[in-house]
Amino acid sequence: xxxxxxxxxxxxxxxxxxxxxxxxxxxxxxxxxxxxxxxxxxxxxxxxxxxxxxxxxxxxxxxxxxxxxxxxxxxxxxxxxxxxxxxxxxxxxxxxxxxxxxxxxxxxxxxxxxxxxxxxxxxxxxxxxxxxxxxxxxxxxxxxxxxxxxxxxxxxxxxxxxxxxxxxxxxxxxxxxxxxxxxxxxxxxxxxxxxxxxxxxxxxxxxxxxxxxxxxxxxxxxxxxxxxxxxxxxxxxxxxxxxxxxxxxxxxxxxxxxxxxxxxxxxxxxxxxxxxxxxxxxxxxxxxxxxxxxxxxxxxxxxxxxxxxxxxxxxxxxxxxxxxxxxxxxxxxxxxxxxxxxxxxxxxxxxxxxxxxxxxxxxxxx
Amino acid sequence: xxxxxxxxxxxxxxxxxxxxxxxxxxxxxxxxxxxxxxxxxxxxxxxxxxxxxxxxxxxxxxxxxxxxxxxxxxxxxxxxxxxxxxxxxxxxxxxxxxxxxxxxxxxxxxxxxxxxxxxxxxxxxxxxxxxxxxxxxxxxxxxxxxxxxxxxxxxxxxxxxxxxxxxxxxxxxxxxxxxxxxxxxxxxxxxxxxxxxxxxxxxxxxxxxxxxxxxxxxxxxxxxxxxxxxxxxxxxxxxxxxxxxxxxxxxxxxxxxxxxxxxxxxxxxxxxxxxxxxxxxxxxxxxxxxxxxxxxxxxxxxxxxxxxxxxxxxxxxxxxxxxxxxxxxxxxxxxxxxxxxxxxxxxxxxxxxxxxxxxxxxxxxxxxxxxxxxxxxxxxxxxxxxxxxxxxxxxxxxxxxxxxxxxxxxxxxxxxxxxxxxxxxxxxxxxxxxxxxxxxxxxxxxxxxxxxxxxxxxxx
Lengths: 366, 460
What we know:
The complex is a heterodimer.
Chain A: H1 2-6, H2 8-18, E1 31-34, E2 43-49, H3 53-66, E3 70-76, H4 79-87, E4 96-99, H5 102-110, H6 120-123, E5 130-131, E6 135-137, E7 141-148, H7 161-170, E8 179-182, H8 188-200, H9 204-213, E9 217-219, H10 222-230, E10 236-241, H11 242-251, E11 255-258, E12 264-267, E13 270-272, H12 280-291, H13 293-302, H14 318-325, E14 329-331, H15 337-342, H16 344-358
Parallel strand pairs in A: 2-3, 2-4, 8-9, 8-10, 12-14
Antiparallel strand pairs in A: 1-3, 4-13, 5-6, 6-13, 7-10, 7-11, 7-12
Chain B: H1 10-57, E1 60-63, E2 66-69, H2 73-79, E3 87-93, E4 98-101, E5 115-122, E6 125-135, E7 144-152, H3 154-189, H4 191-201, H5 217-266, H6 271-302, E8 311-314, H7 315-333, E9 336-340, E10 347-350, H8 352-368, E11 373-379, E12 384-389, H9 419-429, E13 433-437, E14 448-453
Parallel strand pairs in B: 9-11
Antiparallel strand pairs in B: 1-2, 3-4, 3-7, 5-6, 6-7, 8-10, 11-12, 12-14, 13-14
């Protein structure tokens, strides 16, 4: 527990920002309520999630339509607020906790705070997307590169990490200040991707040096990067969350989204039922729904979040991505290495290295 | 004798004594197998803790004046097996200060070496904790530190279960085999007993012939004992048959005499002759009656079922009473009958009527075989009863024979031949020693001293 507490502020900012939401802090704006059909027989269920209301709403509505007797409250919190609220002993209000902050969710489950779910959907859930029967990844979101067609008209498209690195090296002068990526200091997602990238290949550091060479801008959220790309400030964005970029790119024809072909990181949102949940039955029903074919279908059809369910096909499904990318697909594993991401010293080591590599080619810092 | 209570059959007894210890042993082996499986699983998984902590320890260095590590994710992955254990790690400095980690893990104080293991209960979780003591590898700075790693026991338990199930199946198979062998073995071992039982059951109940059967050593002993018993029974039966023959012969002779005498008297008309004949007949009838009563006494003495009640009696009283009873008849025959007793009572546990009978028989015998002087004596230390006379005595060669029924010391004597046999029977019933000896070995006639020695255990 000690490690994440040491740098909570940065995490909070970063992970909240990753949600791409313009969340106001007014509480009501962040709460969705679905009253039960019959007040008398209402079964309450309170979900705490770090997922925007507009993404959750279709899913909750579908669930509520199937189980109208459940009185549903969805509270949208930042990942940090979620984590803190969870650990505060006196607040046992959440029945389901969903978050994209994979290491923190993992940390909670690892500490034994999660309840095992043994419904058949949970039992059959793909091994790679669950940990024990306690933690389930229910979305499948690749990390992508987005670029402006007009800016790179005569250049080879950056469709892999290697292509991106040579592009940045070859066109250093032309692209100076026109590349954007996550700020690994301020964004938890950015830090997680940096960890994974570094883990994938030592040549990642050459890419960081190349990013430093073009004096890449460092952003906090995917939304920020997409906006910058749309209004022409940036030509290339590296490591954007694919689920957000997909819809945005569809609306902006001058943008092109590429899933790197050498390897593509995939992040998953993890859901768990706290041991202290006050309404475990309704919580289990909700998570079972999330993992069911119907729930996953709703995610595929009504949200940009990708689905995990192995039976589903179509755009945004894990099956579809696997078919096109094969072995290059690299989902962030739900395993103990996530704990290493949370280690304070590890974080310092990685960021020091990042800083060194970033300033290697140029004297100007971030 | 109370009827024998049926104890469990030999078959059952053997099965119980073989199977119960075997099952107890099996249970012990199961426990042992479980402990061994757990130990093996622990050893195997402790290697994970060892290598994970080593791989972490190798990344610890000194940076900016404090301990520093670049945590290798692979080390954490190493701690979790397919069972997806919860894992915990922490780095502590030499003063037990937490440097980094995802949990504050306790130290292990006992144990030796750089790597120590312990089972701990931590936040309601059963953890296996491994603590590695190490130090920085540097030219000057060799600061010690501790890497503590822990994981939950699911993987260990799964391996323990797998190993234990294997041993359990083997053990159960062996136990089934052993039980089968024991059942068969016991049945085979008890077969001769069944044979013996059948052989005894199918015998003619009247036959006392020895059993002829090939049997194992233990049962052969039983067969020999049985055959000895049968042989004894054969002897007893022969004795009885002889005794009955002798007795009927003895009774027939005086009865035939009586009949002849009566017939002779009837042929005469003289009432005086009748009178004489009646006198003779009365004497004969008395003798016969006496013979019959002696036969009865002998039968009573030889009956093993009769258990006369013994009580403490004064031997002096018995001797005096016997002398008083015999005094009249002896006096008439001109025999000097006397008694010698100590001035105080001599107490002995005995059956009163038997001792009285023995003395009466001895006095009667002495009278009949020509003694003129009879002394009944009570002695002490050892307690004894004696009857001494000055008659012709019994030659040494005859002394054992006279104890047999219907054997008369002197052919043609007046006795029935039962007196000494009765005395012998009484002596044996009292576990007393009966000795026959000359009263005055150097005199002529030597006389006879019949002595009943009561020993310590003398009691009927």
